[in-house]
## 1
Amino acid sequence: MALPDPSNDTSSGLDPDADQRRVLAQAALALLERAHRRRDHEPIVAPTPPALIETMLRPPGETPAALPELFERLQTAASSGWNNAHAGDLAFIPSGGLYSGAIAALLASGLHAFTGSADEVPALVALEESVLRWLARLFGLPEGAEGLLLSGGSAANQTAIVCARERRYDPLRSRVYLSQHAHHSLRKALHLSGIAPGCIRSVPTDADWRVDTQALKTQIEADVADGALPWLIVGVAGSTDCGAVDNLEALAALAAQHQAWFHVDAAYGGLFMLTERGRRRLHGIERADSITVDPHKGLMLPYGVGALLVRERGALAGAHRGSAPYLRDVPQVPGLPHYFERGPELTRPFRGLLVWLPLQLHGVAAFRAALDRALDLAADAAERLRVLPGIELLQTPPLSITVFRARAGDAATEALRAALNASGRLHVSSTVLGGATWLRLAFLNPRSGPAEVDAVLRIVANAT
Ligand SMILES: Cc1ncc(COP(=O)(O)O)c(C=O)c1O
């Protein structure tokens, strides 16, 4: 395809006409189609030759690249490395990369609507609000709770801490309490928010890898006796290592007793609230002051959409004060927020569409069924691994992550991981719990099914 030639065009040459748009869109969709077919039919990992890295590091040229060669290069790069949307991707926290989400992302950028303020396209801000209100209701937050879509769980955790800092925060006396196994983004966010390391209490976990509530109580009492202020208690609803869910009811009660802010990191586990089992396991989350939840995990959407929900209306705006004379013409819109007043971003992608379109296209029940299936797969894998003599199971999976190791020790566990990943159809990652190496099977990709569990079991049984 020849892109617009600036020499015979009064425009900059950057704006293709209708025919050129069609050619470009068709080439892009064809590339996407090849990538999606590869998901199902090719090995989960492909080599990345050093020459490919060299090619991809090349700077752009002064003149246009030819479309076929350009897309060929992109296709080659995208076909290398790990295929994260493959059915066998059970590593870290998988993200399904739903096709409907990819189309939503294309539309979100293609429509080029500014949703940082409510006045430019109020109907699209209303669409994004509908997603946030749906999420707030799902978690049982009261009418009037508010939210913000951000780039992911790390940004949502950071924004929650910034909000909490507006309430009863004293840089010297405030203390924050979080599980040893809380996600590292929380410690990073505390650091970015200027919270001194001496104010951070890492609380040990109990036999089920949940925060030890008795140890937490004892620590808080010791701090209070010392003149410190319990300021922020963080609960984890689905730890990244093993899916542990803290006793949220007990944490909420402690937070209420000490007037501390109660934040729950449900980035991975939160969307299980759509299921009956998830609602039971996350009981108490409805008492949180703020909740992080990631649609790019639990709703299997393409990367780039996390959410923060906040109980108290106005808390987000209170933490993100700021004004400028050039913003004086931005009018208020009754019933709709200016998102730039609720968070760190002014200009931002139209993330609401990434959540809204897939929910509308598939219906909520399809997501509930996929999440229920992930819980079933983790439970089934656990029961089958439990009976293998050479295998130790960490615990019955609290959510959709099954954790196990070779009884023979760390080296044998590592060898098992290597064997699983060498199969060409699985990607499994490890962690360290209690000083030992464990393997994790994280089920969250809607393409993963019983065939993947069978493949894991076959390899593990052969190797132990
Ligand atoms: C529990 C938890 N919190 C926070 C995060 C960070 O989320 P993100 O990678 O979207 O920034 C993760 C990521 O896996 C997570 O599992």
## 2
Amino acid sequence: MTQPDISAAPPWLPERSYQPGGPPRPATEGTPVVLRDGSAVRIRQVRSTDAPLLADGFARLSPRSRRMRFLGAKTTLSAAELRYYTAVDHHDHEAIGALSPDGRGVGIARYIRDADDPQAAEIAVTIVDDWQHRGLGTELLTRLSDRARHVGIHRFTALTDAENAAVAGLARKLGARLAGRGPGTAEYEIALAPAEYSLHWWFSRKDGLDQPVRQGR
Ligand SMILES: CC(C)(COP(=O)(O)OP(=O)(O)OC[C@H]1O[C@@H](n2cnc3c(N)ncnc32)[C@H](O)[C@@H]1OP(=O)(O)O)[C@@H](O)C(=O)NCCC(=O)NCCS
């Protein structure tokens, strides 16, 4: 897949908008979702002003989670990376984030459409360590799939660390197939059924976006 040039990200987000550790505000926007352990999150699309939330979430990831997400050691997110990860156009680049009740970012899933194959997109998902194993990764990827279907994306690919047991389990749960292996990596592919075949899509239409959604296993 051809990866876009991060340094060419749109410059509208000022460098100083990155303020890790700024006071979080209670989450009031987004769809309320109750996870399987009873904890509550709000889920919404990422915005260009979310760089501080992203930086804060990254700071709370364990070194292992960072390595699994970025396929190598990663200690910081640069201002250019924060700009890029929050400059979503909701068509070729979508990101959906989860906020805890105190307004902190606890998980994010994104796709980036393949420049050479517009029906395919590469995905990445990250859940802050304290929030893993509650079903949030599944929830975010299900919602991301619904968004992708509506903009003509028919399959997701994910390049992962070959040792990433969590993502292997998540991939299995979502019906992914192992598409290939590289040195230390595994690539998964998820075929996306058309929107009208998605139960989640029907339920979210029926319930309305502001109703709490209780998540099943
Ligand atoms: C991979 C990751 C996103 C999973 O998120 P999560 O919210 O913990 O996942 P869920 O709770 O939705 O679990 C979904 C399935 O994944 C599998 N799974 C999750 N964590 C697992 C673990 N530690 N070991 C084995 N399987 C695991 C299980 O099959 C689980 O289904 P089940 O709970 O019904 O058995 C999360 O562990 C993470 O952010 N890891 C660090 C970053 C990363 O690896 N990103 C992937 C790069 S693409």
